[in-house]
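Researcher: Here's the sequence for the chain we discussed earlier.
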Amino acid sequence: MLNTALAHPPVPEIGEADVVLTGDRPTGPLHLGHYAGSLANRLRLQRLCRQFVLIADLQALTDNAADPGRVSRNVMEVALDYLAIGLDPTRSAIVLQSAVPEMAELAMLYLNLVTVARLERNPTVRDEIRQRGFARDLPAGFLCYPVSQAADITAVAATLVPVGADQAPMLEQTVEIVRAVNRLAGAAVLPEPRILLSTTPRLPGLDGQGKASKSAGNAIDLRDDADTVRAKIRCMYTDPGHLRVEDPGKVEGNVVFAYLDAFDPDPAAVAELKRRYRAGGLPDMAVKCRLEDVLETLLGPIRERRTAFARDLGEVRAILRRGTEAARQQAAQVLDSVRGVFGLVRP
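Model: Thanks. This is the structure I predict for it:
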């Protein structure tokens, strides 16, 4: 169970009329960083309103076109992870982005409302370009990522979009596009989505270097078996200065305590462990053993559900088809309205 103080920041004014759009790029298995950062919140949101969860395979190709198999291989893996954590397909439609062509057409229309200069000024895009070292070899699809995201959000008439602070500029650009369309129409053709800002701290990597990341291989995957989880915990970065049990240890920067803060349902017990660790006399292994128990309690049921769904991939594909069709029905209505704004008619 995720620490409720981290997983459930106040979310005002969410009702059954709201529609949430969220999702992930299928470039690798989902891990505990995803669970802490977004998945646990999706479980809560699906109890409050309608939710579309997008497997964004088209967007994943913007920087993986040289290895498309990496994307296609992970579509079903991500779908299994979604079902394993407890997403209910009747409340959270799981949608394959590439199977909703209306989203691609909306993105094409929206590109006429956005300048290259504005895309290049987007802080999130700028940071991602720098991290990937694209320079002027930047794929055009990657630069236009915010427009594609705006198409996804508006296609299902989403009114609420959960994002981390680093992704907020992406939603701001969506709002700009929505307002531009509505100005052209002289009416509120598209709903203006609200941002649901996450206050959950990013989960650090097992090695203490940056955030937990599938590309860096420094995360505990949701599909990891118990032995793998145990081995990863045993290798977690702690306090390099805590050489002997009796030495005082540092909690800050200690990855084991960061994971306990995120997932241990007993914050008081974690606070006592921190006090003892700082005072000296508490071995790293004792803290790691507690984390093993905490994560097995969380991941054990997820692992079992994943195994059960994996035995019937036909049903998983059916769930994906139903969710995608629900998104297409909504997107078709939105696209007709937006085409009308641009003066396009169907023969």
